[in-house]
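Q: Predict the assembly, please.
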Amino acid sequence: MEPLHSPLHDRHLALGAKLAEFGGWSMPLEYAGGGVLAEHKAVREAVGLFDVSHLGKALVRGTGALGFLNACLTNDLQRIGPGRAQYTLCCDDDGGTVDDLIAYVRSDFEVFLIPNAANTAAVVAKLQAAAPDGVEVTNLHRQYAVLAVQGPLSDEVLQALGLPTDHDYMSFVDATIGGQEVTVCRTGYTGERGYELVVTSEGAEAVWDAVMAAGEPHGIRACGLGARDTLRTEMGYPLHGHELSATISPVMARAGWAVGWDKASFWGKDALTRQRAEKTVRTLRGLKAEGRGIPRPGMVVRDGDAEVGEVTSGTFSPTLRTGIALALLDPGTPDGATLTVDVRGRQESFTVVKPPFVDPSTKEA
Amino acid sequence: MTPEDLYYTEEHEWVRLDDDVAVVGITDYAQDALGDIVYIDLPAVGDTVEAGAVVGELESTKSVSDIYAPVSGEVIARNDALEGGPEVVNSDPYGEGWLVKIRASDDDPRAGLLEAEAYAALTRA
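A: Predicted assembly structure:
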């Protein structure tokens, strides 16, 4: 199947993007004149603009929509009110993770979801199959674009466009820019202060152009999904397909904070509750290189000769200038322990650490 | 960008021959495909290498690629500046970003190498 194109595809071609397939979409990996290191640095020190329109969009609407979702997804939507967003997970009955997603609550009647590109159809189908009469679940994957403005100078860029910036982390506000309706969400996947702008696909190019123009005096860079991956790995944020999957539960990924354990029910509750109590499953930890090895997904982690885990994501940290990894490790492995990662036959030493590897600044006022 | 005075391999390396000494690097095409290079493992001076054998590796933010010996012989120098500044392979692949120098043991080290025109055709295909 031919990969899908973002509504911003022509902008990426004009900027000399190197494209790669992500969840069935042809998206920018990095841009000409940039590259992962320069784009990563722009987000940590100034501001970067990402097209993440491959992310799914779905609307759950109708009487009891919020209550229905709350009985399906792991996190507790009663913890937040209208205008707030929440990180949550969609699990199978066995606790395996169908997807992790963000739920944007507009009211008890209407919740907007942003799942991962490759899992949107599965999440929508699962919700549709379970939805009671009067609650409608609509897949809007192609109807909306998502632009992420991320970095310490993102407020300056939004303010220059007359967009709101005084709302809290994990909240959203509707606004307009050049006549286009935009939902300005203070969310992101980089660990920096920043925003995700949800706009109709038709309006995406105008918003992209406006943000790039407003960001020019602040050193804005178009950033690809290569930098997005190094940025999120430094934060220890899980990526579905690596740290979460049908066989990696939220308990294993240490995403228990995004589970409403006291709720009467949600998909996978029994299995997850058991895993949480038994503490026999591998859990997600951080590994930081003591030498020059760069870990990669699938590499085996050992304590002496004993295999104790596996790397799920690994890269060179542009901020720390060293190799870092997220890895599923056997229970009981202490922080600070030195383990080895088999890097193509070389046994490289790594220290077990608690992510994030780099301090986030998402919540700063 | 394929300098005329160099020889090339199908593994996207270049070779500058000066009598029996071969200076080796990776091509502009290779550095662009790899992306930002962050780690380089080079053979030691004094190592004997066989043409076509893996002698080291280049790692970018997103992937790893082997370094092959384009000619047989003895490693007589390596670019130690790359340890602290591997990005020079991206910015100047045919100059400051050279990798190793090999004293070729074959009578004609050009045998098995590609001329610029043939290499340029390879990367256009």
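Strands of chain B lie at 7-8, 13-18, 21-26, 37-41, 48-49, 54-60, 64-68, 73-78, 100-104. Chain B has a mean pLDDT of 95.
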